[in-house]
From TrEMBL:
<dbReference type="Pfam" id="PF01547">
    <property type="entry name" value="SBP_bac_1"/>
</dbReference>
<dbReference type="InterPro" id="IPR050490">
    <property type="entry name" value="Bact_solute-bd_prot1"/>
</dbReference>
<dbReference type="GO" id="GO:0055085">
    <property type="term" value="P:transmembrane transport"/>
</dbReference>
<keyword id="KW-0449">Lipoprotein</keyword>
<protein>
    <submittedName>
        <fullName>Solute-binding lipoprotein</fullName>
    </submittedName>
</protein>
<keyword id="KW-0813">Transport</keyword>
<dbReference type="InterPro" id="IPR006059">
    <property type="entry name" value="SBP"/>
</dbReference>
<feature type="signal peptide">
    <location>
        <begin position="1"/>
        <end position="24"/>
    </location>
</feature>
<dbReference type="InterPro" id="IPR006061">
    <property type="entry name" value="SBP_1_CS"/>
</dbReference>
<keyword id="KW-0732">Signal</keyword>
<comment type="similarity">
    <text>Belongs to the bacterial solute-binding protein 1 family.</text>
</comment>
Amino acid sequence: MHRRSHMRAAIAMTIAAAATLAGCGGPSSGNGGSDRSGVTEITLWTWQSTIDDFVTAFEKTHPDIKVKAVNVGANENEYMQLTNAINAGHGIPDVVYLDFNAVHQFAISDQLRDVSGLGYDGIADDFTSAANTNVTVNGKPYGLPISSGPMVMFYNKTVFDKAGVTSAPATWDEYRAAARKIAAMGDGKAHITNDTGDTGFLTSMLWQAGAKPFSVDGTTIGINMKAKNVSKFTGMWQRMIDDKLIDTTTPMWTDDWWHKLDDGSIATVLTGAWLTSSMEKNLNATRGQWRVAPMPQYSAGAHENSENGGGALALPKGTDDAKTKAAYTFAKWFAHDGGVKVNLGQGGLPPLKSVLDDADWLAEASDFFGGQKTHETIAAAAKDVLPGFEYLPYMAHANTVSVDTVGQAYHGKFTLQEGLNRWGETLKDYGREEGFTVK
């Protein structure tokens, strides 16, 4: 079955007000409930490379639950496998990691369990408001937040110093001025940042500008790429593109990208705070040169931010009901209890108020970031996230088709705003095809 057909089948269950999912309450993997020794085995799907550390720690304190971690692919590959399993009615994981935008996609299709009655209501207030918003669909929570990505600016202080930029840009005007100084250092090889049209970055930047291009009300969705504040971002960023101040040829996560970060060719990265641990693992020559600063603002003194990345552990429908309690126990442990210490030890950022307010955590200094107390900046960034941003219920699809619309703006085919307009029309057509009412 083609990808579109899978998504249409999933979403149609809600659109047509279908009854309970086929196989709901049936076996997820043929293991049933507890075995003869009283041990319940649950299956976890995640692409997290360090998941074994969590599983080992959990099983030491929960000997009656065994966690089988399976990597069926990252992001859209996992989502496709999950859709396949749910449609087939078997092979469904008991707990699955989903990016926040995917939580919305599967929840609106009635494919996830509402976790409020399982105990989440009792701990919801311990998470940040942004985290709760990210797992809430139509007023109900459909996952336990385990990671967050408040946007920050990582910048190479050594490059800034050489260019004569004496402090981290506090506004986007200052950021553009810094970009000019860096570009003037030599041969056009240095850029303040890179952007090749990544959709996650795009939506984060729209969010930070205060734009709300998407709205969701049940099966009615709104898509407006000319909404208030959209032009605030597109106008600012288009000038950066036109003046060739952005590297538009180097995609993130490639070897070339890491090399350019490590030789100073790319001087800033605008992304979620989760990048700290990856930078520490992948950069050597510039160790000690990087710093973390708040995102530049559109007006001096403002404190407006967004998120990039982050996700939750969700419990799909269609699994064995006897395993649901064990699956929730693991998810809660990971998000709220013992797993928090493991997460922090790996450089993660659990979206818990207790973490963001912890004096010891805030006071930690990072050798990689030149002795800076980076957590202070990250905590403030998390508290500045603007409320009310919504994702489409088919954001995974939206991400894949943006390359043919918004992505072309980075090749000079048309302006960024025109790319957004074309993307919006494509998303409206797709929404109607999937049975949504689109306005």
